[in-house]
Amino acid sequence: MNDKKIVIALDAMGGDNAPGEICKGALLACQKYDDIEIILTGDTEKIKPCLESHPRIHIEHASEIIDPDEHPANAIRKKKDSSLRVAMEMVRRGEAQGCVSAGSTGAIVAGGVLVVGRLPGIDRPALGVPIPSVEKTSFMLDVGATVRCKPENLLQFALMGSIYSHKVMKVANPEVKLLSNGTEEIKGDDTVLGARELIEKKNSLNFGGYIEGNEVVAGHADVIVCDGFNGNIALKLGEGIMQSLKGLLTDEVKSSFMAKAGMLLLAPVVKKLWARFNYEQYGGSALLGVNGAVIKAHGRSKSPAVLSAISVARNFIKEDGNELISREL
Amino acid sequence: MNDKKIVIALDAMGGDNAPGEICKGALLACQKYDDIEIILTGDTEKIKPCLESHPRIHIEHASEIIDPDEHPANAIRKKKDSSLRVAMEMVRRGEAQGCVSAGSTGAIVAGGVLVVGRLPGIDRPALGVPIPSVEKTSFMLDVGATVRCKPENLLQFALMGSIYSHKVMKVANPEVKLLSNGTEEIKGDDTVLGARELIEKKNSLNFGGYIEGNEVVAGHADVIVCDGFNGNIALKLGEGIMQSLKGLLTDEVKSSFMAKAGMLLLAPVVKKLWARFNYEQYGGSALLGVNGAVIKAHGRSKSPAVLSAISVARNFIKEDGNELISREL
Questions:
Q1: B130 touching A, CB under 8 A?
Q2: Do B253 and A261 touch (CB under 8 A)?
Q3: What is residue A1's predicted lDDT score, i.e. its pLDDT?
Q4: Is the pLDDT of residue B149 over 90?
């Protein structure tokens, strides 16, 4: 579909900086890419004042907003005119090939399954996220869509992750590893052991065995496969450690003149490291296994992060990601 | 048992710095505490040259060593004259109340179950470890003894962790939380949900609900309960992030004179933070649920860490930790 126009439904009301930064991100995307068209979904009265007009940006009115505190599945079911649901309905009806939202992760996952629908052959979806590491940027899935998995689910995640890494992240022959409690073959619980057996049999996968927690940040894999419970804890733990270190460093530096001076001299290095491990820059996580390109941007996204999430959706669509996944199954 | 002598069997051959640093640690402990007696287990010929003689340090000869690469349970079963098994047999026979080893974690867990034996009423043991955090030092269990758990196991871990936090770490009314993929009550998989129900009913526990990954390092709980699979991944992930940051910082600083100067000025702060999050200083993890005080010192332990692990065993014995656990069950 390289010549066709790509239509992306963009939830204008999701995230901490909606609708202003979302509208700005839409404009940036249309300025950058000639082949996309963006439908902003949400309250027309609120969107219009933020939006610079552009021939390829349109508004689809939606009167409701899903609150981050709402029960995700209930909110998706009941709020039929919410900005997120309206965006997802466009994907379901084929009026858009993808959908981007900075709203509640839970609602996006619920909507992906209930509104957009699963890809034929996929039992459970997975939320995949780029993980910054020392050597490279890995892709980890699932980080929260499917809490507990069967071995078959993990096999499907491995296939989807491998295609995503190759097509969207442009990794040649991505190495896939399973997150486990040790690298020896006897490690893992029954689910992980079962998944290992299934994945080993798939010739299309470049499988590298298990990966341990301490190897995740070292970057010892291109694709890291785990269930949504483990992935969620690992991702949040990493974010928490970085936040805590930043806070402690700031407090400690305040207490000494020498340290303050040192911090000034060291600022470029710290800034560089911080930027590298700042999850927000990584353009959004992908809900894989649903019948469209569904991308979740970080809740605190400003316009560059919105642009980045739109780029990810565009790449996935241009590369026929779902077509490739379906063919593998 | 406050007046009685405390006998601790110490595996002289376990860990990277055995037997030299282990022997030194034994001496430090006997110099610090009047009430302990230490039996070093291992190759007499190798121990003697390292050991300064002390009236309360003895040697129990053991001809074999368990290698870190061996299958833990097989090694414990077959190597009947290994330094670790001989130490654990002393606990089983009641000749020592506790046992300390810097050897393979897997072998210590296997020996705890197969040689020392489980406490009556405990189905599965848990390995607990102090986790440094911003506000306090939390106690996390299980970090690798029981890979997957039933709700009943997690309840038992909560009880054991609470007693350990109170008696050994001296926390008044420790708050216990369950590691989960969110703090809302609807989060968690079936096991965690089931455990939550059981723990809520236990009046003796100060239960605070769920804790998320990002709150672990912030120190939002005194005791963090999880299964051995998640705990192992979380612990190793934290260690890996610290190691990676240290490596990246060192590399970056090398590349600029300004940064080098800044790092010199900042050195005391970085050292302080590093020491705070350096897991090795925390004196050893406790194998709870077995019929004795079984403490695992870090594999890289030098004499102060060996002393620290012995202190932990001594405290647990002095406070009648296992007596209290049995009474709670």
A1: no
A2: no
A3: 46
A4: yes
* Interface check A264 vs B, CB under 8 A: yes
User: What is the least distance, in Å, from the CA of B188 to any CA of chain A?
Assistant: 7
Test A229 with B228 for CB contact under 8 angstroms.
no
Q: Are strands A137-141 and A223-225 parallel, antiparallel or unpaired?
A: parallel
CB < 8 Å to B232, chain A: 181-182, 213
Kindly list the residues from chain A whose CB atom is less than 8 angstroms away from the CB atom of residue B147.
181, 188-189
Q: How many CB atoms lie within 10 A of CB A105?
A: 22
Task: Write the pLDDT tens digit of every residue in A163-196.
Answer: 999 999 999 999 999 999 988 777 888 899 999 9
Mean pLDDT of A117-129: 94
Mark yes or no for CB contact A265/B262 under 8 Å.
yes
Q: Rounded CA gap, B324 and B162, in Å?
A: 11
Cα B60 → chain centroid: 24
pLDDT band at B1 (very low <50, low <70, confident <90, very high): very low
The answer to whether B216 contacts chain A (CB < 8 Å) is yes
> What is the phi/psi pair of residue A42, to 5°?
150, -165
Q: Which two tokens stand for residue B33?
A: 């505490």
Tell me how far apart the alpha carbons of residues B58 and A90 are, in angstroms, rounded to a whole number: 78
- Can you list the alpha helix ranges (DSSP code H) found in B217-256? 228-254
Distance, in Å, from the CA atom of B174 to the CA atom of B139, rounded to the nearest integer, reads 10
Mutate: best of B150, B180, B181, B189, partner A, most A CBs <10 A = B181
Among the listed residues A104, A207, A110, the one whose alpha carbon sits nearest the alpha carbon of residue A154: A207
Q: Contact at 8 Å (CB) between B77 and B114?
A: yes
Q: What is the pLDDT of residue B185?
A: 77
Identify the residue among B269, B271, B278, B280 best suited for mutation to test binding to A, counting A beta carbons within 10 A and taking the highest. Answer: B269
pLDDT of residue B278: 66
Chain A residue with the nearest C-alpha to that of B264: A262
Sheet holding A293-296, edge to edge: A57-61, A36-42, A6-11, A98-101, A293-296, A285-288, A126-132, A137-141, A223-225, A175-179, A206-211
B133, B243, B262 member nearest A262 (Cβ): B262
Provide the pLDDT for residue A3.
Answer: 62
Contact A239 B213 (CB under 8 A): yes
Cα angle at B245 between B297 and A180, to 5 degrees?
60
Residues B275-302: b if buried by 16+ CB within 10 A, e if exposed = eebeebebbbbbbbbbbbbbbbbbbebb
CA quadruple A10, A12, A15, A17: dihedral, nearest 10: 130
B261 at A interface, C-beta within 8 A: yes
Residue-wise pLDDT for B186-220, tens only, equals 788 889 999 999 999 999 999 999 999 988 888 88
- Among the listed ranges A44-48, A64-68, B89-93, B182-186, which one has the minimum average pLDDT value? B182-186
Q: Which residues contact A174 (CB under 8 A, 6 or more apart)?
A: A139, A161, A162, A165, A166, A206, A222, A223
Of residues A297 and A284, more confidence is placed in A297
Pairwise CB contact (< 8 Å): B239 & A263: no
Structure tokens at A236: 């949040």
Closest chain A C-alpha to B52 CA, distance in angstroms: 38
pLDDT averaged over every residue in chain B: 91
- Torsion of the alpha carbons at B199, B208, B146 and B231, rounded to the nearest 10: 170
